[in-house]
Amino acid sequence: MAGSDSAAFPEGVPCWIDAQLPDVEAGKRFYGGLFGWTFDSADSADSARPAGPYAGAAWARLGGEAVAALVPKRDGRMPTVWTVYFATPDAQDMADRIRKGGGQLVTAPEPVGPYGVVALAADPEDAVFGLWEAGTHPGFGSGRGTGTFSWVELYARDTATADAFYPGLFRDALFGPGVTREFGRAHISDVYPAEMPPHFLVHFGVQDCGEALGAVTRLGGRVQAPPFDTSYGRVAVVSDNQGASFALLQRRDGA
To answer: What is the pLDDT of residues 95-149, one digit of tens each?
Structure first.
C-alpha cells in the first residue's frame, strides 16, 4: 500500500480503511470533492505497487499523508462498502483467535507485496472487519481530524456477544492504560430498520456537519440519518455516489 511515516500500530487499533467501489474514478471525484483528498494511481509506472486484492486501487492522501484506499470491486455480488482494518503483529495468529472466539474468516491472510498482510474476518454476528499486519505500510499517516478517519462504531444486535468477543481480541487497545479509543459499540435497537445487519460504520472528521451534508448531496451522495448527538460528538450517516455508507463526525472540540 501507499507508504506512511507512522510507526506500527498496537494490536487492535484501527489502522487502515478502504472502500470497495464499482467505479474508482467516480469515487475519486466524490471523496476528492468532499474531503480534498488527492490520489496516487496503482496504474502508475511504480512497479512496486501491490497486485492481488489492491491491483488497480487508488491511494488517497491528505496533506501528503495516507488516509485510505479506493479499491475496484471485482465481484458484483459483494457489497459496496467501507471496511476498517485492525492492526495485528501476526495476522495468522489473530485469525486463529477469531475462529476460537466464535468468529470466522472471510478471506485468509494474504501478502500485499512488501506492504503487509491483509485478511477479512467476521464476528459471531457476521459483522465484517479487516486485519492488517504491517510490512512497509503501517497504516494511516499521523494526522487525525478533518477529512480523515476519526472513529468506527460497531452496530450489534447481541451486545453481550460483542462485548465478550472484541475485548478477548483487542483488550489492550480497548482497555489498556492511557489508551485513546477509536472504536465503539452501539445496540441495534427497535428504532433501526429490522433488516439492518450488524456492521461497522467508519466515521470521518468534519468541522461542520451541516456544511458537510450539503457537500455530500451536491456530489451525488445521500443522507441516511440527519445529525444526532453521541458520546463522541455529533454524527450524521450518509452514503456516497455509489452507495457506500459512512458517517461524518463533528467532535465537540471542533477537532
So the answer is: 999 999 999 999 999 998 888 999 999 999 999 999 999 998 899 986 678 999 9
Q: Is 200 exposed, middle or buried (0-12, 13-18, 19+ CB in 10 A)?
A: buried
* Residue 212 phi, psi dihedral angles, 5° rounding: -65, -35
Cell of 187: 445496540
Give yes or no for a contact between 57 and 70, defined as CB atoms under 8 angstroms apart: yes
179 is written with which cell numbers?
489508551
Give, in order, the Cα–Cα distances in Å from 55 to each of 6, 43, 70, 160, 199.
23, 8, 11, 39, 26
CA nearest to 249, candidates 192, 214, 201? 201
Q: What are phi and psi of 168, to 5 degrees?
A: -65, -25
Cα–Cα separations (whole angstroms), residue 112 to 109, 122, 132, 158, 229:
10, 20, 10, 34, 39
Helix (H) or strand (E) holding 205: strand 199-205
Q: CA 123 to CA 154: how far, in whole Å?
A: 11
Q: In terms of C-beta distances under 8 Å and separation of at least 24 residues, what long-range contacts does 106-109 make, across chains too?
A: 107/53, 109/133
